[in-house]
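Lecture 7 notes: from sequence to structure.

We start with a single chain of 121 residues. Read the sequence below before looking at the structure.
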Amino acid sequence: MGSKWRKSPPELIAFFEAVMRGFPRIEKRKMFGYPCRFLNGNLFTGLHQEDWLIRLGEGDRNAIIEKYDTKQFEPMAGRVMREYVLLPEEILEDEDLLQHWIERSYSFAGSLPPKLKARPS
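Now the structure, written as tokens:
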């Protein structure tokens, strides 16, 4: 069995919450027990352990992976969530770059069909 997931550092959670205040119409939820944000029911960004992940379309995803030498989000070995990438330190430390990539993720999520919540049976 793999090791247990670690909690996100409090500083990262506070930073995430502060950045997310600037985005309208988002839903605050947890995924894997970590703070995440959804737009029209679609996850577009969130935290996982020490990582900040964003959802991007293929072109943006390839560009960020190539330019910043980052990788796709893989919450468990062999379980890649293909539309999601991890934000590298270089982006997290640059307010303008971070804002740019979060906005790209927000726009991509906004272009997806809304996910309807399952009705209880």
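The beta strands are 26-31, 34-39, 42-48, 51-55, 72-76, 79-86. Keep this in mind for problem set 3.
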